[in-house]
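Newbie here. two chains, one complex. Structure please?
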Amino acid sequence: MGAADDRFLQMFFEEARELLLSLEEGLMELERRQGDRTHLDKTFRAAHSIKGAAAMVGLGALAEFTHGIEAVLDRIRSGTLAVDSDVISTLLEARDHLSVAVEAEAANSPLPAPGDLNRRLLSLLRDASLPDPVPPPSASIPAGYPAAKVERKKPSGEAKSKPRIPKSKKTSSPMDMAIGSFAEHASGVGYYRITLKPGPEILRRGVNPLGVLDELRELGPTRVATDPNLVPPLEEMDPERCYLVWTIEVETDATPDRLDDVFLFVADDSSVTIEKRTASGVILPPPEVSKPALAVSKADKVKSALSVPSPAVASIEPSGTPAHSAAPPPPPVAPSARPSAAGSGGAPPPRMSTRIRVDAGQLDDLVGLAGELAVLSDNLQGVREIERNQPWIVTLEALDRVSRLIRDTTLELRMVPVEELFSRFPRVVRDLADRFGKEIELRVVGQETRLDRTIVERLSDPMIHLIRNAVDHALETPAERVAAGKPRAGRITLWAGHEGDRVALRISDDGRGLDRDRIVKRGIAKGLVPVGTSVDDPRVDTLIFEPGFSTRDEVSELSGRGVGLDVVRDAVRGLRGSLAVESQPGKGTSFIFRLPLTLALIDGLLVETGGGRYVVPLAQVEECVALNGTSPALSRGRPCVSIRGELVPMVQLRELFQAEGPRPVRQELLLTRHAGQRVGVAVDRLLGRVQAVIQALGDGLTKLNRFSGATILGDGSVSLILDLAALVAESRAADNHAHKLPAGVTPEVYR
Amino acid sequence: MIELPNETEQETERTQSYVIFQLGGEGYALEVSRVQEVIDLGHLTQVPGGPKWLRGVINLRGHVVPVWDLRIPFELVVDPKPSRAPCVLMVETQVASDVRVNGLLVDRVSDVLDFTPEDVQAAPPLGLGKASPFVRGLIRHQEGFLLVLDVDRVFTALGSTLTGGGI
């Protein structure tokens, strides 16, 4: 039981994190998309879903706090609260608090105090409810009831603002839920008869149907009835199965939407019929009522029909069944569809994109296995050369095709749209703009571009760093911008797209551009560039990526915590990517990340040196040239070669690896770039191109630094993946250390 | 497990099975639970610049696994022309909280034997040479002693020297 509880809790945390994200996105867009009902509904549902889910797993305090957010959103939905920047800020802060609280629950640490958030949420509700500036149409509020409601609401609302220290485990719902909806939609009291017939599996899914009853009680006076005869004798009873069917009569002024929302969590595997009654108690015929508030999922119709074995069907059953048949068929595409909102005009319910959650570890295993399968297939391909025209060749080719498909599909599983990364930034930009008193317009382009999920995860911090820089340093204040003849609002553009076989991400601003004079001065002072370096030297821009380089003298709260762009660049390099900068004075700056599509697979060159075979990432090789032993440009011992008239320093891999045996007369030179300079790495032979599934080397071996991993070749042998940049750096460090070479043979001189 | 009469059942619970192997002329013992499998040494890919006791990496059913030669840090004799091919013990090692699989090159795996905790004597503080810190105890067996290897300690201690070694 404890394990099951734990599992549900884990599921809740995962779900809550996702919902919190969509709540944030929703809130961010709310101001811009005023009047967009669908969007508002979606945002409201996010809050509502969190509340419901929290209550179901017994996290009453979370549910209660979320209720406040939901209530404000409900106010907005009912048109009694106008959306402005302050409202959004409060809601965003409340969301943040909720997010912190969820993480605190997940880590089993004490919940943070909500501060004045409860009070502020409440004041939003009060502002709207007390003056009641725009009485909603057809507000034929029955006497007595709303007044009593208001009386009841206030004290409980006050109680809410007190920090609740002990978290009540079970959803002792009268406490948590009956606090009273802050904002009911005052469209007149309706009498509803609701039949709730939970699916037999509902308890196993960890859903507590009683939560629904509690929530209905919250909406108004209810009468609940059920037929105990449906429960089988004890010896036949499955304790994890729900046998009961409830009939609830509720008198409420809530909208049909609101009623539908109550059943959000049970709608998937329960059948729910909602019938409206006139005050006289006459039940309206189902066809008329089925439209606003009726939700039956198709699967459940079948399931519940089949899975009630008892012939003694409850008396409510007949009334439920015709209602089923009258229900509009649910959209077949969304099996998990929630009750379709009455106001959404028949559009499919705005469920978030059909997403699956996959365990990252399993996924990695799958990628490894699939790679292995392709390798096995390669082995068989090798055997094929021996015997021709055998029937198994067909099978073999199929195996080859299938295994490659599996590999590609599983790699695809690792890919996520950069939207997951970009979606955090509107909030970041909004907060930063507020803080620095700047006006910023954020544009996002190409967010559907897909990228390895590990890359997406690890890019978040570097990108936020650059965005902070842009807001803090690069973009001018509105006054400065106007004076410079630019639009008041600065613009930051996030762009994602493909560049060849790489993905490029670009963060551009239209701010003041890099201050080259200052960078050069600083670079000279730090000894990074020679004295007298021109401002136009292309190396100037890349100086900002040097460790400890900062042109800002004062340390700003956000951007100058001693973390420089070198950290950003290193992070990108760790992902086998590169970071570049382009800047025009007065026009703006762009930072460009160029990244591999995936981390699990690389295109490589298979090379041989000193009897060993190694894979070199193709991305590190600019060019291969033949080295025929006659071209040393300087005397022996000064490893430089002339490539089309350019003197290029060279690293002999054989020597670095201390390979035995004579050097072959003809070698190949792989040209790569190190610190902006061309450097050649000499290998004995090129064997061809390979696509390599990368495996990490053990802890001890990664410290070696020469190899970025290992891969298994077609013949089953292991080949190490060379990191050319590290090899060149190592070789240069060895040279400098040995003081053997005259200082003149460092690459910089030969530009 | 070996079938034993009821009286000794209690005894069985207390015994521990050990894989007995030869390393540079010495007999070693390692708990069976730590050994995943024993394989013949196939193609080894050498790691230039790796520590001396790293013989290379192998492909263990699609996984790249390093193979280590304890004879080098233990300063045992390495037979340049062994009469039979060495084999590799695949052992699970735990360094900090990280569980990994590593290969240990051994001359020969001779047996799997059961011993009770009483069979395992404390190792003398001296006299075992470079292997001393990594021997948890001694088991008297036949004519001589078996050294009980503490693989976690081996990889924890030698792991830190991985980069220093060079070739």
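Moderator note: The domain at 17-162 of chain B is CATH 2.40.50.180 (OB fold (Dihydrolipoamide Acetyltransferase, E2P)). Residues 151-159 of chain B form the longest helix (9 residues). Thread marked as resolved.
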